[in-house]
Amino acid sequence: MAKSHMKSPVVGISATDKVFYLLVNTVLVFLFIVIAIPLWSTITLSFRPNHFIGTNFEGMFLAPWNWSGAAYKALLGNNGFIMAFFNSIKIMVYGVASALFLTVPLAYALSIRTLPGRVFFIVIILIPHMFDVGMIPSFLMVKDLGLIDKLAAVYLPTAVSTYNCLIMKGFFEGIPDELKESARIDGASEFTLLLRIILPLSKPIVMSVGLFYAVSFWNDFFHPMLYLNSNNLMPLPILLRNILMASGMNEFVEVSAFGEAPIQAIKAASVFLAAIPMVIAYPFIQRYFAKGTLLGSVKG
Amino acid sequence: MGTKRMLLVAMMVGLLLCTPLMAQGQREAGGAGPVDIELWYGAAITEAGPPPSDWVGFQIIRDKLGINLKLTALPSNEADQDVKISAAAAADNLPDIFMVRREVWLRLVKQGMLAPVDDLYAKMPVRTALQYDADSIGFTTFEGVSYGLASPGSIAKNEGVLIRKDWLDKLGLKVPVTLDDYMQVMKAFTFNDPDGNGKHDTYGFGAFIEINNFEEGLGRRMDPFFGAFGVAGTWNMTKADFGLNVRKGKYYDAMAFIKRMADDGVVDPNWLAYKKDDFRAAWKQGRFGIMREQNAAFAATSNYAPFDKNFPNGEWIVIDPPKGPEGKQSVGVYTSQYRVYAISDRVTAEKKDAIARLLDWMSSKEGYYLLGWGVEGVNYTLDDGIPVAAGVPDPEYAFTGPKGQPYTQLRNMVFYNGEVELTSRYPTYITATSGKEMSALRVLVDMQSRPWTAAIASDTLPPPSTDLKRFYEQGVTEFITGRRALNKANWDAWVAEFDKLGGKAWEEEARSVAVANGLLR
Amino acid sequence: MDASVSVPSSGKTLVRRIQRHRAIYILLVIPITYFIIFKYIPIWNGQIAFKNFMPRQGVLGSAWIGFANFVEFFDSFYFWELLRNTVMYSVGKLLISVPLSIMLAIMLYECRITVLRKTVQTLAYLPHFLSWVIMYGILLGLLAPGDGLLNDIAKAFGGRGIDYLTNVRAFPWVVLLSDAWKEMGWGAIIFIAALMAIDPTLFEAAIVEGATAWQRVRYITLPSILPVIIMVVLLRLGTILSGGFNQLYMLYSPSVYSVGDIIDTWVFRGLQEGKFALATAVGLFKGLMGLFLLTFSNRMTRKVSGSSLY
């Protein structure tokens, strides 16, 4: 499918178009290099053995047979790692579920231009986007709701982001009105319309927004730190933060919590371990990008 | 209409699912029986997990003391700790007992959030004898009432000036004594290729900016040079000459010396950009030949191992800090370091008694060893009365091993830098590559014998305002980087502006606090 | 058109319009309730900005102190500098990162080499996951004055090492470009999603009419995603006084305070001294500025392009 899209127009390609595609490809290759090099240096850093001498630059060319998995071993062997991982998954799943459950209807409602009071509702959701009143007012709210030391305290207060909601609303607005009208004439209720017509047409944006939410819940360290007290609820970012920020750890004496791995390797490895679920998720989401409305363009 | 209603019901159910029902924390055991005590502790090894729920300590505490202990590890870095505690305090939601930094503690005292603890000292005879004295009680006393329990923190004077002995020998240099000697050696280390690799990749001195409220400005790693001019640390705590060191004339001379070091390129040029871990990675890679470092960060097994592997012939020795023109010398300032545990004033009398019981038991022989090292025969064995990791059946579960560490997370609540601890924490060992005999304890004793400046309780003086603090730190670094030209006129103008911005008032405020609490010696 | 409807009946039409949309209002009930509870209770609690907040007295019980917290912020010795730095970084990122994201999205859309497209698309979004702690390590490796890669290269060509991270002239560029590097691919996702919605028949028609690739980008692709671009830019303008706390808190140091200290980092250092009400006051100030700017620019874009937030 993708291939036919790639090749067909090449037949009649003009000189200016050639320059265009050459430029596009060159820039992308350049970007590839610019992004890949520091990523590579972080990957090699995570495999760096304790006794390595040299700059990061030299570290990038360290032969794989000299790599050391000590950092990964130390992290995966950490007592709390598995539990923290599952807590993070929980927060992310509950979080994304409640976020989409709240965002999609809201965005859809606001995308209806004829809705009386629409501007009023938009202003209602815009104001919290701009007025960040800080930690204490939110903490008081969470406490009053009795959510302290519950996972809900982590994902509910941030469950709707105005940014995501308005972006989604913008996409819904782009769906031709005729589609909606014909469905309404066929007697579809607004709910069926949303579920059967709007959502299937909006897969890329629902997926993107879902991804944005997922990542923000997955990476959130601040709210768990603030609201959770029980050790059995702590998510991954707390654990990683304890590792990343524990710069005093070298003073711990007899210690070798991380044995043979240097602290920089531990830091780099922890970032990669934490990012893995998101890295796996993205190509999966990309499939929806291609399958959605893109499908039509294959014909060209 | 039917689908509509169904969807509405579905949405309601969905909302219910979103509510707290879905995920709850540990349920507290209610009703009669053991007293619940919620404790927020500072973990001994932050990256290792908390004591597991089947830890024998919980059982003992429940059976013997009638306490149901609920533990929460505070975040690993101080800023996060402050945030968590401050937020809980603002919502009037503090735990029963918690570790807290003195600045935050003082604020909570002023807001009336903490319980007085004067009556507790007598209720915990064992612990009070080991951990508390007039100084520690003074540390947590506000307007005549003690609002917190201050236990000994990290060991005083545990840092020292270290030099690469092998580099000195290779270049045929003597151990530097005066500032001039230091300068000569630093130049030689920078330009005479002490590691003999033919590249210009070594420097005389290595540091990074490590600031706290009693070591302002360029921070503690540069203090040996300020010490040579008698202006180490933020404050001069003597009766005769109390005040901010930065406002003293000698501070300019020290700045001029450091500026010369920077201009001559004998300081690792990365020092302003380094964070702690970068600095520590740098000396292990042999980047510089003189530094101020902490005893265990230098000499403990896992910290020294990479250096040993990289430079089997390398050797660091502790030396005296540089001697200034008037013969002054000092590694830096030291204070009595404490860890403060405070009690929420929401606790009932019954809970307060339970806390006293708990803390006193912790300091008993049973509690001390259990919290400090774990279970004998499982997590440690005794060698001549000293707990050691050797000889336990499963080394993973030794108190130093990855599975054993969680059992010792509370050890900072019982340690008081006694003989047994120090010997156990800093064992003598043979390094893996070069076979040297090392001991962090020996290093510590050596470091403590060097010249230091007392600045006891200088960490209890009021902090500067946010703006003033920035003005101070930014100013001194800008003089070093050359963004501000360092000459007497500029410096005086800068100090005058510093005064105008509140520097003078800050000093006066601190003076009144110091005088009122009898801190000047 | 509505204006032509006679006044007395307009009330009736409104009622009828509301009735016609009642299903939509039902959809709105839960989200709006959510907003009231989770967003407006904190804003209500935000009154502590005008109070001497004491935990024991609670939000309502604490004494009013008027604008003292705001005055403390405005009176800061560094107020104007903080404002300048904050605006410099948020506008700078808007001008660098957002156009780069758009460019990346379009180039990925146009790229005909599948392998290249997929690799870059997946790779470009990865740096978002590197926390700034890690980024600092990478930047130090590249830019350290002693042994950074860039300086090693400069020295090899006989140049002098530059202390990028601690030099006031270089530092803002380090901030802006590292942000672009880290967030460009992430920011492109939303534009890629927007590109997926373009009607492919438009391109077919353009090709038939002999439009060049440049023209297709200029006259079809860009106009199609313009509403999304405007939305993103407007929403970012609404938070213009937040310049990226996590990044600057990690990257700055005393030697670059004069160009690295932004409102949020200043507030954070105040938070460490327990100035919570001050933080809330600054939050309100930032919100007010964002509100003005957003309202104004929303009006402008509506006039110029016809699309707007509401």
Structural commentary:
- The complex is a heterotrimer of chains A (about 300), B (about 525) and C (about 300).
- With about 300 residues, chain A is mainly alpha-helical.
- Chain A has helices at about 1-5, 15-45, 55-60, 70-75, 80-110, 120-130, 135-145, 150-155, 160-175, 175-185, 190-200, 205-220, 220-225, 235-245, 265-290.
- Chain A folds into two domains: about 1-70, no CATH class; about 75-300, MetI-like (MetI-like fold).
- Chain A contains 15 helices and no strands.
- Chain A is flat.
- With about 525 residues, chain B is of the alpha/beta class.
- Chain B is globular.
- Chain B is built from 20 helices and 19 strands.
- Chain C has a domain at about 75-135 and about 170-305: MetI-like fold.
- The two termini of chain C are about 20 Å apart.
- The chains are: A mainly alpha (about 300), B alpha/beta (about 525), C mainly alpha (about 300).
- At the A-C interface, α1, α2, α5, α6 and α7 of A face α1, α2, α5, α6 and α7 of C.
Order of helices and strands of chain A: HHHHHHHHHHHHHHH
The proportion of residues in beta strands of chain C is: under 5%
**How many beta-strand elements of chain C?**
2
Helix-strand pattern of chain C: HHEHEHHHHHHHHHHHH
> What is the CATH topology assignment of the largest domain in chain A?
MetI-like fold
Helix content of chain C: over 70%
* Fourth-tier CATH superfamily name of the largest domain in chain A: MetI-like
Give the DSSP E fraction of chain A (strand runs of 2 or more residues).
under 5%
Rounded to an integer in angstroms, the radius of gyration calculated over CA atoms of chain A is 24 Å
User: Which residues of chain C sit in consecutive blocks of at least 5 with pLDDT less than 50?
Assistant: 1-8
Largest sheet of chain C: 2 strands, antiparallel
Q: At the first level of CATH, what is the class of the domain at 77-136 and 170-305 in chain C?
A: Mainly Alpha
